[in-house]
Amino acid sequence: MEEKIEGLLLPVERYLESGIHIGTKLKNGETSKYIYKKRKDGIYVLSLEQIDEGIRKALEEVKKYNLKDICIVATRTYAANAATKCKKFLPEISIITKRFIPGTLTNPESRHFMEPGVMLVCDPRTEKEAIREANMTSVPVIALVDTDTLTKGISTIVPMNNKGRKSLGLFFWLLTRELMLKEGKIKGYDEFQVPINYFERFELEESE
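User: That's the sequence. What structure does it adopt?
Assistant: Structure tokens below.
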């Protein structure tokens, strides 16, 4: 599995441990270019190079915005947990961890109304209303895309396992670190001493 790739954000082993490359048994024409191979059990495996490149593009895109203009839609359990951890370090960011309420971006009368500059969607399959409204209001969409995900309406694609606890924890660890650096909250990557598994764990587990 692409053992000799150099210049990645993280060592190959770290990516593999997180399962960020493990896709599903389904693919579509839009995601085929991100696939490295198909396993004997029918699971499609994503390319680590493509994953790394996608994460880099997402980080560069999100850094263009002030924290208050960033909205993360993370309605599935593992994504919501990791996004909530991210917000603890970067409280200015908006996160939606419950159902995306129709009208959030399009109805100024809604109590949920917001006008973000950019939206990060963790699962386009279940959060398609968020993408639809972002497109209607010309808000760029960064999305975590698995092998079975349709990519219509997405501006920046991050090919990865968007359902795994460890893979989502890893992504949000990288996102938090990058934004902390951009905001001057840390002076270098070495100062970010938070373990990756902090973004995987739930509060109950931390208290045990």
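Helices lie at 12-18, 48-62, 77-89, 128-136, 165-182, 203-207.
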